[in-house]
Structures are given as structure tokens and as C-alpha cells.
Design goal:
With 154 residues, the chain is an alpha+beta fold. It contains five helices and four strands. The two termini are 31 Å apart.
Length: 154
């Protein structure tokens, strides 16, 4: 299951702060990526010396946890079309560039990536994206996708 699509500047591996010696997941880079490894001792020192840093980190971790909980809940209760639409809107919110009230995603996720994130078959995602395209909610171009905003959607 795809847990998160990380943007530049994002971090992962925070489970080591909680005392887990190995991460319960793996990371795959979609394009050339540089990583910075911060030793656990440095994290611990930062948390102990800066209450502001600790508070901001706690906020980020709570936000990540809430996102995973919502996706897990949705995977149980949401229909396939709702799952796919929520996912592409979340990608648009995180990575898209505003175009009027809508958002343009230059490097749109593959159908397989969406399927992995939503717990669906790739073929189901393809069908749902075609339906969303017909409804005018997702417009696919060679250069990326235009995702309609909730308020401007038909």
C-alpha cells in the first residue's frame, strides 16, 4: 500500500524516533533524489533542546497519522470513484500549481501508483479516471492533469 507521496523537503523514517530499529515500510524514488540521513542521536538532541522543534514535529507527525487513518477509513467505506477522486485531489492540493480555482499537476501519478494508494486494481483506476474525465473533474493533458476544485466542479 502506498502511504504517501513525498514532495521535496519532506522527511520519512520518523518511526526510528519512537524506538523502532527498522522501518515498517520501504521508500521508492520516482526520479533522481538526494537524501540526508540524520542520525538518531541528532534527532534526540534536537527534541530535547528545542521545544519549538518538538512541537512542530509532533504537529507534522499527527498530520501524517491523520492522513493515513483517513485513507484507511476511506478504503473500507468509500466507493472506487470516491477513492480515486479524493486521491487525485490530495495530490493536486500537495503538488499542483493553481490555475484559476483549479490545480495543475505537472507530474501526475501513474494509474498503478493511484491503485496502490487506494487499494484498487489498476484497471479499476483507469475506468474511474475515464469517468472523472468525462464528468470534467479531471482533465488529462500530455503535460499533466488539471484537477477541478470542489467548488468549481460540475
Amino acid at each position: 500500500i502506498l502511504l504517501e507521496i513525498l514532495r521535496p523537503g519532506a522527511f520519512f523514517g520518523e518511526s526510528s524516533i519512537a524506538g523502532l530499529t527498522t522501518a515498517p515500510y520501504s521508500v521508492v524514488a520516482a526520479k533522481r533524489t538526494e537524501f540526508l540521513l540524520i542520525p538518531l542521536g541528532n534527532w534526540t538532541q534536537l527534541l530535547n533542546e528545542s521545544h519549538l522543534f518538538a512541537a512542530r514535529l509532533t504537529h507534522v507527525l499527527a498530520t501524517k497519522l491523520r492522513s493515513v487513518q483517513n485513507r484507511l477509513r476511506d478504503s473500507v467505506y468509500e466507493r472506487a470513484d470516491g477513492l480515486v477522486l479524493k486521491f487525485v485531489r490530495e495530490v493536486a492540493r500537495q503538488q499542483g500549481v493553481p490555475r484559476g480555482k483549479d490545480r495543475f499537476v505537472e507530474q501526475a501519478p501513474t494509474h498503478q501508483t493511484i491503485a496502490d494508494a487506494c487499494g484498487l486494481a489498476r484497471e479499476t483506476v483507469t475506468r474511474q479516471l475515464t469517468r472523472l474525465h468525462r464528468k470534467g473533474l479531471v482533465k488529462r493533458y500530455r503535460t499533466g492533469w488539471l484537477i477541478r476544485d470542489n467548488e468549481t466542479a460540475p
